Amino acid sequence: MMPLTVVEQSEKPVSVKDIAARCGVHPSTVQRALQGSNLVRPKTAAHVRKVAEELGYNAAANDAARRLVYNRYGKTVLNQAIALYFPSDFALRPYWNRIFQGICEVVNEADYDLITISNDSAKISRHMSNCIVRGAVDGVCLFAANADDASGLLGRLRQEPAFGAKPVVSMIQIVPNTSGVTTDDIQGARLSLGHLLQLGHRHILHMQSDDGLYSVQQRLAGYRMACRDHGVEPETVLRKIIGSWQSDCSGWDNVIAAAMRAHPETTAILAANDFMAIPTVHGLRTMGLSVPEDISIVGYDDSDELLNAERVNILTTVRLPLEDVGREAVRLALDRIKGSVKNDRTTLLPVTLVERGSTAPPRVLA
User: Which of 27, 220, 269, 313 fits 20 for a cystine, CB–CB 3.0-4.6 Å?
Assistant: First the structure.
């Protein structure tokens, strides 16, 4: 067995008492000033922070002792850290990048740490992350790939003694018994289908997952509203494509080909997202069909691009404020952590339709 290596510190860390002695105040005043409490006069708080910086005070170096004291009196110590459950491939997708950018902005502004954890369902089922078990985070922001994973993860978090009832904020997919930040998928679906109906399309395929996601139900409600707006029945204009489009697009050409064979009258397609709109166009082209001359297509989220020969994005889509999803999720988590928001709540962000070159009136059959 390898021997343990012990590193001795050459100097004793600066303590709250050291700062108090230099400032001529009580240690509790120093603690309140460093924590940003409004119980300390601004002038005094500014002086305390300046002295702490001059002395090289490091709150983390005193963390263990501080926790022991607080726990002794039944008080909670904030870690100033949030855990983020996110897809393991988030660095590969513009969609995730935009949400992550918003998350990082607010985390940095709040001087919090962010601990990123893969939300791979197999990993979660084996064990919880060490930071959760140790109680090293104050809350969790998560993106749920599907309803079962979300329910399972939330249950595991609540069962961990060191996490318990700490705040959980879900993003995009709303998870019962959590706070949430999502986009207006009812309006997004209403706008996208309404755009195609306005152009004259009456034979439309739409991609739908059957995994019970919150967003699926919201979009279906939006489609029904669009049909009502244009005086048509959903059953007469919409046909459903079922397929896996979470991460692997292999075989998607076959899915599209089968759908078009089953519904040759189709003139337009509502893609589940921009990521899936791209291979859908590829599948149509392999069948000799052009976009938008033969088939119009509408994406969803405005993240991935469908480029023409001039390298211009031509994909008509519904734009989601993805950076704002990340920002608002962290803000809501911080509000719940600090107690300024006592109960779970859901924030709904607006969406817009962006009309580009992938949609046109339906072709006229000879």
Answer: 27
